[in-house]
Write a structure and sequence with these properties.
It holds the Pfam family LRR_4. Keywords: Leucine-rich repeat, Repeat. InterPro entries: Leu-rich_rpt, Leu-rich_rpt_4, Leu-rich_rpt_typical-subtyp, LRR_dom_sf. One of its GO terms (biological process) is long-term memory. It is a single chain. By secondary structure, this protein is mainly beta. Among the domains are: about 140 residues, Alpha-Beta Horseshoe (Leucine-rich repeat, LRR (right-handed beta-alpha superhelix)), CATH 3.80.10.10; about 140 residues, Leucine-rich repeat, LRR (right-handed beta-alpha superhelix) (Alpha-Beta Horseshoe). The protein is about 0% helix and about 15% strand. The chain has 1 helix and 26 strands. It has a 20-stranded parallel sheet, with no helix packed on it. It has a two-stranded parallel ribbon with strand order 10-12. Strands 17-19 form a two-stranded parallel sheet. The chain starts with 9 loop residues before the first strand and ends with a strand.
Amino acid sequence: MLTVLENLDAIWLNDNRISSIAPDTFHEAVNTTMIELDNNYLEEIPVELLAGLTHLRVFAASNNKIKSVPEELFLENLEVKEIRLSGNLIETFPSKFFAELPILEELYLDRNNIIELQEDAFVDCKKLRDIQLGNNHLTSISVRIFDQQQESIQSLDVKANHLSNIEFVKGLKHLTTLNLEGNQVRKLEEGEFDGMANITHLMLAYNHLHRLTKQSFRGLSQLMVLNLSNNAIKIVDPDTFAGMLTLKELYLNENDIKSLPEDVFEALGALEKLSLRNNGLEEISVTILQSLPRLQELDLSNNPTANIPDQFLQHNLNIERLSLNEVRLQRLSEKFLPVPKLMKIISLEKCSMVEIEPEAFMSFGSIFSSALYLRENQLTVLPKGLFRTCRMLTVLDLSFNRLTYLDPDTFSSDSSLRELYLEGNKIRQLTVGDLVIFPSLQILNLRNNCIEWISEALPSLNLLGLDP
């Protein structure tokens, strides 16, 4: 038993090698409000461990090896507000384990082996606000389990379980964050989220959804982040996102979407980030993005789309990050980026490009530090003046193209380039004059070229790659 504990407000025994603890260890700590035993080797908790600690607010024993917990552990701890038992081996909880916890607000039970929760498990916890149940083995949750928390729950995390039915969330009118990732949800029923207008973050990635309809998200008028990535979505109905006037981030990547209705994003005037990476999109309409004036990040990588229209970004003047990797472009015209001044990152890797028009990157990198990735294309030459206005371009990756030389006239006379990647090209010779226009250059990668000689000493670099 620890002595002289009466005046301690908090006891931290985290990150030790404690494998067992005596029942009377804390009995003298009658004024303690916090006990933490995280990251030890405990296999069990004595039923009397917290006896007499009537002022206890927080109890934590996460990341131990606890397989079961005693039913009356918190019998005398009516003021507990937070319990953390994450990262243990618990499969079930005794029927009255959470009884007599009237002001419990935060409950962390994620990363256990929980297979079942009784319907009345939380019936006495009417102020429960944040519940973490992710990474367990739950196959179902009773539709009435949160009947007493409809006015209190704000955050619910049940990711990485085996749930196919999510009816248990109905009625949680103050819920703001709902994480259902990594379950087995195949369909969103009509009215699934009725009465839950306060949800701002909804995560449904890594499920088995096939279709999205106008009823799928009905009533979610305050939604800000919607993650639907890594499902099996093939069809997105035109009005799917109707009413989502506050949505800022939409993730539809890693699905099987082959086409999208032209007006599918019409209601998303506040959208800032859109990911459609790794789908089956065969065509991009010139008007599909016109209702997204605030769009800042767009990822269309890894789609079989060919010949993206030159004007498809003409209404998206705030884009900062654009990724079109593995989209067949072949030729990049001067109209492709209408107003690229705000762009900070452009990634056009593996696009089968053979030609870039001299004005294609006009004004890109003229205001903000920027990066351009053009690796693994089929470029044999860069037109003179291509980067002449890109004075703030700091990273340029031209690796694995077919370039035979580096022409200084391609770049701005006051270039800020810091990293230049030319690996895997066909460059045969290098002179110091080729690099003198890059006074800030720190990294130069020339591996796997055909360089036979270097005419003069290279400038000081932090990293130089020349090996074959």
